[in-house]
Write the structure tokens for this entry.
Amino acid sequence: MDWTSIIQTSVAVIGFGAVVYQLSQVERSVRSATRWSIYDLAARVKQNIIDNPEVRPYFHEGKKITKEDKDFDKVMAIADLFCL
């Protein structure tokens, strides 16, 4: 085996290691972005419940709602945030 083959093999191994490292960094970045997105969604839902305390029983106490309920549209709008 001549020296050029050894160099080519070494470069290939180092390149493969670099690709594996970059993929792990991409995975970390995607996981972080996903967590942030989930936390942001949860914060927005909670903020809506804080801003509209009359809807809290529908989300935290299992209170049933009907179309005739005065808070129906508000509850449905906040529920849409859960379904994004």
In short: The CA atoms of residues 48 and 78 lie 7 Å apart. The longest helix spans residues 3-51. Residues 3-82 form one domain. The chain has a mean pLDDT of 90.
